[in-house]
Design goal:
Length: about 375
């Protein structure tokens, strides 16, 4: 399956881990619609690890745990589809999944067939317990091939955490997204760490195969499976802004049955989503800026139609000044052009009259602009 912009949806792992069941999925599906998330583009509802029994059946097929999914997965898919959503499921390239359930190694074709029969639209494919002698490139190409031959359009979401130089071989597998980082946890250090891991990988992101920086922790506030000390709303806002700006898939990880207004506001920022879904899916470029240190990131991304997105991200706990000379985005004084800025969280518009942009940022805060090229 070919996906032209970063996939968006919800995934069970961050909050629920192994505590998943049919009712949770039905309620989440309801909320994805009633909270307006589907309307904003969040269309995949993904059931992560821990959904099956520990053993395959006598025909070698995977079996949904009847205590968690008493009506089977076809019923779950039917419900999810009836809401206008798509269903995602999870397996692994190894003998076992990361949580110890059966993996798809040497069962790739039968599993792809099973997922197709159930009506699955998305498969997240992990990398735990894989053979030490068969390289990842074979394992992912094998499942990619199985999915392309299963008779159903199933989006392939590779999850090998960037290991074994995944970026060098993953596109060959027909994956539409690939985990370019390790696992996220609900702490600011984790967010920062993943952002830094991403830096050298921007050139590999683009239409058809997106760098997946892992599921969002927005709104978790320390609760759930990967919830540790939690983050502040300002930190969640910056985390979301970076994921959107970098062109990562946007997979919500909090309990959307109980979102605060602030969480909802962050997850549904239309202008940020528009930048994420820009049809060019162009590479974000790190700008040098003036006095920008390691924890003050300045990024630009050229959008289809000629606008430029600018992202100033303060990862530090200190107030910081973002200072940018427009030479860096291709607009030296000699062009007779400048930028008219609109900040996408506050809506504030600032015409830039000279060749510099300056913006004070509070600790952990960010400013993201959509900028128009105008005459000086
Ligand atoms: C790995 C993945 C996570 C999640 C768990 C499930 O750690 O990276 O995203 O799927 O496995 O066990």
């Amino acid at each position: 399956m070919m996906k032209l912009t970063p996939p968006m949806g919800w995934n069970s792992w961050n909050t629920f881990g192994s505590e998943i069941n049919e009712q949770l999925i039905f309620d989440t599906a309801d909320k994805m619609v009633s909270e307006g998330l589907l309307e904003k583009g969040y269309e995949y509802l993904v059931i992560d690890d821990c959904w099956s029994l520990r053993e395959r059946d006598e025909n070698e097929k995977l079996v949904p745990d009847p205590a968690k999914f008493p009506h089977g997965m076809k019923a779950v898919a039917d419900y999810v589809h009836s809401k206008g959503l798509k269903l995602g499921m999870y397996s692994c390239a190894g003998n076992m999944t990361c949580a110890g359930y059966p993996g798809s190694f040497e069962h790739e074709f039968i599993d792809a067939q099973t997922f197709a029969e159930w009506g699955v639209d998305f498969l997240k494919y992990d990398y735990c317990y894989h053979s030490p002698i068969i390289a990842g490139t074979y394992l992912y190409r094998r499942m990619g091939l199985a999915l392309e031959n299963c008779g159903r359009d199933i989006l392939f979401s590779a999850c090998s955490w960037g290991a074994d130089e995944t970026h060098e071989w993953i596109k060959a597998s027909a994956a539409s997204m690939w985990r370019s980082t390790g696992d996220i946890f609900d702490t600011w250090d984790s967010v920062k760490n993943l952002v830094k891991q991403q830096e050298r990988l921007h050139p590999y992101n683009g239409v058809g195969c997106f760098n997946d920086m892992d599921m969002l922790i927005v709104g978790m506030h320390g609760k759930g499976n990967v919830g540790l000390q939690g983050c502040t709303d300002v930190q969640y806002k910056t985390h979301f802004s970076i994921w959107a700006f970098m062109g990562s898939p946007l997979m919500i990880g909090c309990d959307i049955r109980n979102m605060t207004e602030e969480t909802k506001k962050i997850l549904t920022n239309e202008e940020l989503i528009r930048i994420n879904q820009d049809p060019g899916c162009r590479q974000p470029v790190r700008l040098a800026g003036t006095w920008a240190g390691e924890d003050l990131l300045l990024y630009a991304k050229n959008l289809v139609g000629g606008d430029i997105a600018l992202g100033f991200f303060n990862l530090s706990g200190e107030k910081a000044m973002a200072r940018l000379n427009l030479d860096e985005v291709g607009l030296p004084f000699s062009t007779g052009k400048t930028l008219k800025l609109k900040e996408l969280w506050t809506g504030e518009e600032t015409p830039v009259r000279n060749a510099n942009i300056m913006k004070w940022l509070e600790p952990y805060d960010c400013a993201v602009y959509r900028a128009k090229v105008v005459d000086l």
